Amino acid sequence: MNFLTTLLVAIYCLFLQVEAAPLNKRLFAPSSPVFSLIAIHKGEPFHAHLVKFNGSSIKLGSDDKALFGTIEADNGYILNLPTTNGSNITSVSNVVVSNKTQLLETTTKNGSASQHFGITNGWLSFLNSTSFLACAELDTSNVTASRNSTGYSNITGNYDLYFNPKNTTKCPSGVSYDVKLSVQLSVPISFSPETNAGGFFKRGNLVNKFFR
């Protein structure tokens, strides 16, 4: 009987300690699920493009493999892009938003990734903004390119991705399209410093968005 009583008291004390712990410490999620991205544009020349990643560059419209990523909360909400080569060796790149041009680039250097990415109501966000820009890629092998009223004549048909929070980002080609990046998951979530305090992925906002 004494053993049973002691066991019950111990379990009760452990329960009290768990209940006393801050909610954000108990339920904090260290990373998001793996997701892919679709760039959504309203109008021409495209409505949707799967975001691609070739191991070094992030593109739209290219023949590369689909981008798959996670957001790592433990490292400041960085966008992490794991890739596997033909030998099944996995390497990891992280996304960097250029301070000068706002281009989404990648790095393998520790501590160089841009922080504060997130998933907001089903869209990829950076610094709490979901505004991005698809810029037509220039064919740099054509050094005699001319420029016309719609931009350079030597665009490749692919697009680079830029961050465009205040609608002031400029494309080198002069041909750009506003896009939002739809996060593709089996269950829509929000995952950012603002929504991760409880650790459970927030789905209510997206549900309200479609059913209100």
Structure description:
Keywords: Signal. This is Hyphally-regulated cell wall protein N-terminal domain-containing protein. This protein is of the alpha+beta class and about 210 residues long. The protein has three helices and 14 strands. Strand 2 (about 50-55) and strand 3 form a beta hairpin. The protein has helices at about 1-20, 25, 205-210, and strands spanning about 35-40, 50-55, 60, 70, 80-85, 90-95, 105, 115-120, 125, 130-140, 145-150, 150, 155-165, 175-185. Mean pLDDT is about 80; it is low at about 15-25, about 145-150 and about 205-210. The strands form four sheets. Strands 1-2-3-13-10-14 form a six-stranded antiparallel barrel. A four-stranded antiparallel beta sheet has the order 4-5-6-7, with no helix packed on it. A two-stranded antiparallel ribbon has the order 8-9. The protein is globular and about 85 Å long. The relative contact order is 0.18. The chain has one domain (about 1-210).
